[in-house]
Amino acid sequence: MNRFSNYVNELFKWNVEMRRFLETDNVEANYELWQQLDEFTELIESTGKQLSDEELLSLQAKAENIHERMENYFNRKQQEVGNIWISEKTVPPGGHTLPELPYAYNALEPYISEEIMKLHHDKHHRAYVEGLNKAELNLKKARDNNDFSLIKHWSRELAFHGSGHYLHTIFWRNMVPKKGGNPQGILRAEIDSYFGSFEKFKNQFSEAAKQVEGVGWAILVWSPRARHLEILQSERHMLLTQWDTIPLLVLDVWEHAYYLQYKNNRGSYVDNWWNVVNWNDVEMRLEQAVELKWAAF
Ligand SMILES: [Fe+2]
User: For the residues of 84-147, what is the DSSP string, one character each?
Assistant: First the structure.
């Protein structure tokens, strides 16, 4: 059996399991998930033995789409029943706090001195927390007064101090006294499969860090879209983004997105754009994003 028919076979099994799952959970017969599953069943039943790469990819995409919708369906139900998020700590506007170091200031010596750690954590990181709180409170004030004349300034502050706070919070926990060694488990597997080897990963990460233009960070990220690791450089640490956040709703205001139709009138493009927002999609992204929970600071 080749890998194609293996995969289609897997899809058949998966399809049967999904049906059983929906039945045991008494999902309403008219719910759109059933309809999608019916369509999917028809599709794989009509599939010939030999599939082209495109046909296979398209089948895979459909299966993933159904899977995603199913997960969201069950997440929503859970929410209705238990609503487990509400009691968890969330950070209100202006409510960020400086996380404690998970070890003593001198614990990383001789590699990083006590003096640096004290200054870095207690002065620099604290300043980011304070700056972020200030930006959030000023944006709250702007919303309450419907006065966005300083939106550019506060958005910049929000990005600069937000990234500073979130990245340092990760940074402290990325380090531990007297450890080192090599990554293991799923991390090691992903590193090997994407970068080729731990050595190659380490070389690229080191060079990315050494060659950041001016000041900034080297950052190992996971891309949920590509489902692989990547190494990025961040100059300074914002250029108006907040690292450690997940985009939910995005609006393209590059000229190519509106110029042919709206010429230089970006404002009316933005105002009209609200007519075509797919809130179901935004909600679906949020439902997936809230599953990921870091400790709140
Ligand atoms: Fe720093």
Answer: -STTS----TT---PPPPSS-TTTTTTTS-HHHHHIIIIIIIHHHHHHHHHHHHHHHHHHHHT-
Q: What's the gap in Å between 167 CA and the centre of ligand 1?
A: 8
**246-297: same fold as 183-238?**
yes
Predicted TM-score of the model (pTM): 0.65
Distance of CA 224 to the CA centre of its chain: 7
- Domain boundaries 90-180, corresponding CATH code: 1.10.287.990
125 CA from centroid of ligand 1 (Å): 7
Q: What SS3 class is residue 220?
A: strand
Q: Show pLDDT as tens, one digit a residue, over the chain (297 residues).
A: 455 566 677 777 777 777 777 777 667 766 777 777 787 777 777 776 667 767 777 777 777 777 667 766 666 655 444 433 344 678 999 999 999 998 899 998 888 899 999 999 999 999 999 999 999 999 999 999 999 999 999 999 999 999 999 889 888 888 888 877 788 888 899 899 999 999 999 999 999 888 888 888 888 898 888 888 888 888 775 567 878 878 777 777 777 778 888 888 888 888 888 887 788 877 877 888 788 887 888
Answer whether CATH 3.40.50.300 is correct for domain 246-297. Answer: no
Query: What is the distance in A from the centroid of ligand 1 to the CA of 254?
Result: 32
The CATH superfamily of 183-238 is Iron/manganese superoxide dismutase, C-terminal domain (3.55.40.20)
| 61 CA distance to ligand 1 middle (Å) | 41
**Phi, psi angle pair for 234, to nearest 5°:** -120, 115
